[in-house]
Fold:
Amino acid sequence: MENISEFSTNQVFRSRADLMTWVQNVARSRGYVIVTKRSNAITKDFISKIVLGCDRGGIARNKNAQTKKINCPFELIGKYLKAHDGWKLRVVRDEQNHEPSMYMEGHPFAMRFPDKEALLVRDLTELDVKPRNILPTLKVQNQNNVSALRTIYNFVQKLGRSRRKGRTPMQNVMHILQTKGYNLLYRVNTVTNELEELFFIHPISLKMWQVFPYVVLMDATYKTNKWNIFNDITKHCRQRIKPQKTWNSFHLKWKKLVESPTLNAYMQNYADLQTLLFEHADVLDYLYTVWLGKYAERFVSLRTNKHVNFRNSTTNRVESQHGKLKKHLESVKCDLDKFIRVIEKVLQSQAIAIKETFTRSPIPLDSIDDFWRKLDLKPFISMEYGDLNVDHRMQRFKEIYNN
Ligand SMILES: [Zn+2]
Structure:
């Protein structure tokens, strides 16, 4: 067995460090981590023998502790030989009792499949084919194939690991977004180094957005800020509207108001709200000054955009793409990088579909909402009651992306 070990060598290493480097390189190519288990010294500062093992060798001292140690039998011995004035390596046992634990640089597909099959499994996996459907394909391609479903599952996991190359899931998401050319804005907590905010936009979507800016407001700003807005309202008004019942119907009427599908409905809903709050002039005043006065038009136009028809196609594309994304995501066990890849696919099909409609005919100007036919957003008046942060973010987007 020693003869066929990749660790068998007649090489004389000039130093212990040289020997270690060589061992680590061989180990890494196979996906294992080697550690020094013991070393013997002749004199206080000259070590003459080292016993090397796998990082999963040994037994956990505390049975309850979470440990990687599962008594892996792998062992090598490095010895200083005076006759050679150098180090030689001996293989005691080249055997692991577990799967490789590291990314196998240079050998990503070498584990259990012949190369051709490995590539096929990789390609099918990229296409979202499930292992249980990959297996029959392999058997058809190669009658001698003895793979079990488990083999494919393991391999797919290994693929994932080798794709991530030791990055954490979050680092991997950032890596994918960067290599795919997304425009990124993010903020990291300076103390914990955790990601707190991430905004990304595909270059094609960015172009589309510059042409039809409501896409972003519909899907991101509006939907998340609806929540923020009511939070802010609660902060300022909960104390002033004491009865729970009144507060609840206020909340309902507010929701109805901001979701008004037409301007007429909006006026009606606003009148309802005024009736409910006629004893709370201060609240009405706040709502108008902070929200309705300057955002009303947008609440309504965002709603009406839902019904904008491009040519004869049905409702808004963003909404349907959003539904499509949701459908995609429900059907997969989703980790973060999968999520990004699904988004990427949806974006691509979206871009293709939109481009196709452009080539069929131009979009008639009167099918675009009035709000977006204006050349700029309304200038905002300063806020008196708290800050939602919409304005400065809007400003940031404009500065960055209008250039
Ligand atoms: Zn091991």
Remarks:
- The first strand starts at residue 34 and ends at 43.
- Residues 32, 54, 56, 72, 74, 96, 98 surround zinc ion (CB under 6 Å).
